[in-house]
Write a structure and sequence with these properties.
Elements (H helix, E strand, L loop, with lengths): L2 H16 L4 H24 L3 H4 L5 E4 L5 H13 L7 E4 H16 L7 E6 L6 E7 L9
Parallel strand pairs: 1-2
Antiparallel strand pairs: 3-4
Length: 142
């Protein structure tokens, strides 16, 4: 680890301790704020009780290198933050593949039977095992 990183980590830990927080608390606070803002943006169009009237689906992306226990902990923190119980966690490379595929299906005029490979080579991972088979035409994509 670099000296700068160690110094920044020390500063962060001192700040957390001064406020009686730990990394999990900060994660919950952050997710709670994001969800509160999202709900405020949805209420004018969907109504104040939108969560009771509609099926709300939330998907959080997580790093591909996370262990199952870290993933389970993140799910618990999301629930603690007030996100819907059925909030899904999706590995970042898969999220990239889904988003890219939806765009490519239209722009590249993919047809049933086409095969697409998407490589996520960002951050700390290089994943190229997202091979998708087109099972529907672009017109039938949501």
């Amino acid at each position: 680890m670099s000296k700068l990183y160690v110094e920044e980590l020390g500063t962060l830990n001192r700040l957390l301790e001064a406020h009686g927080k730990n990394a999990k608390d900060i994660t919950v606070d952050y997710l709670r704020c994001i969800w509160k803002y999202t709900a405020q943006q949805l209420k004018p169009n969907l109504g104040a009780n939108f969560q009771e009237e509609y099926t709300v689906r939330v998907v959080l992306t997580i790093p591909a290198l996370w262990t199952p226990s870290t993933t389970k902990m993140m799910k618990a923190l999301a629930i603690r933050a007030g996100l819907p119980y059925h909030t899904a966690l999706l590995l970042e490379p898969k999220a990239v593949a889904v988003a890219t595929f939806k765009v490519a299906a239209v722009e590249a005029r993919l047809e049933t039977g086409d095969i697409v490979t998407i490589c996520n080579a960002g951050g700390e991972t290089c994943v190229s095992n997202n091979i998708l088979f087109v099972e529907a035409t672009a017109e039938s994509m949501p």
